[in-house]
Specification:
8-stranded mixed beta sheet; binds glycinamide ribonucleotide; alpha/beta; Rossmann fold
Length: 211
């Protein structure tokens, strides 16, 4: 590609992963940040970085699919090559996701396939896991369910709480997401019906040290 990768992001909340992506200074153009919540911190972060924003309210649409088509339509109109779900807390309609196969990634705070969905830190503690982590995966219609491309790991100690795990893991998320986006921007990581890294199919998720 003879121009920077065009990236759009969707976020429902505070936007710390978006902030990390912006701060990473990657050779990308962040063309749009969208949200299902007008009050999302992510929108303020984007606006202060001069990135166009859009917030659509799901209640203004008759069905989930209508909302998803509208929001993802805005992403397509912005000319995005890659869509990053950075704390976008909605299930996306399967027909809409299908159009983005291999072009959308999500970050999730667990070592997938463990703990899809919510309360991942609590579930990790309840299970007595000695290790926790975050995953970046290609998005499919299955919630937090697409092929995992990279993971960051932290050890779980006896004194850990939900809050301590969340804050330590967030530091790792802020390294992992830019690393994956950077690898897509450089062409090292790409999708040809499956994830390829340096031209080879991924046998297991990448680690931060692999980038
Ligand atoms: C992050 O921990 C991200 O992994 C998680 O939401 C948080 C968003 O934080 N995503 C999911 O749970 C997706 N299923 P942020 O708004 O500060 O980036």
């Amino acid at each position: 590609m003879d121009r920077p990768l065009r990236v759009a992001a969707l976020a429902s909340g505070r936007g710390s992963n978006l902030a990390a992506l912006i701060a990473a200074g990657l050779p990308i153009d962040i063309v749009l940040v969208g949200s299902d919540k007008a009050s999302a911190g992510a929108l303020a972060i984007a606006a202060s970085a001069g990135i166009p924003t859009v917030a659509l309210n799901p209640r203004d649409y008759a069905t989930r699919a209508d909302f998803d088509r509208a929001l993802f339509g805005r992403v397509a109109d912005a000319g995005a090559d890659l869509l990053v779900l950075a704390g976008f807390m909605r299930i996306i309609d399967a027909s809409v996701v299908a159009d983005w196969e291999g072009r959308a990634i999500n970050i999730h705070p667990s070592l997938l396939p463990k703990y899809r969905g919510l309360h991942t830190h609590r579930r990790c503690l309840e299970a007595g896991d000695t290790e926790h982590g975050a995953s970046v995966h290609f998005v499919t219609a299955e919630l937090d369910g697409g092929p995992v491309v990279a993971q960051a790991r932290i050890a779980v100690g006896p004194d850990d709480t939900e809050a301590s795990l969340a804050s330590r893991l967030l530091v790792e998320e802020h390294r992992l997401l830019p690393a994956v986006v950077g690898a897509i921007a450089s062409g090292r990581l790409r999708w040809e019906s499956r994830a390829l890294f340096d031209g080879l199919p991924l046998a297991s998720p990448l680690d931060i040290a692999d980038f």
